[in-house]
Amino acid sequence: MQSLPGGAVTFMIVSVIAFVVLGSVLEGIPAIVLFGPLLFPIARSVGIHEVHYAMVVVLAMGLGLFSPPFGVGFYVASAIGRADPAEAMRPIVRYMVALAIGLALVAAIPWISVGFL
What we know:
By secondary structure, the chain is mainly alpha-helical.
């Protein structure tokens, strides 16, 4: 991933996609334990601040947790609420769009996460 063309921007886009997919099939802690030691040093070497990258990773995994078709958190919430997942998807789409916009803003504007450090 360090040799991707485009530097930090491409690395961030690929990381967001990877962690959304990982967040949809794994819980957060196993994903961080498995991929954190591999990707955080690369993020540092391409010039991404550690706190900024950590916030992007957490937001991406949170988005993946409720993303269909594998979003484990969505199906658990549907089971707890005794709701049919097909019916529950319609109201949650707006929140998923808001999460995706928030993730894109935090990933694109590092000041949001490291501006007050």
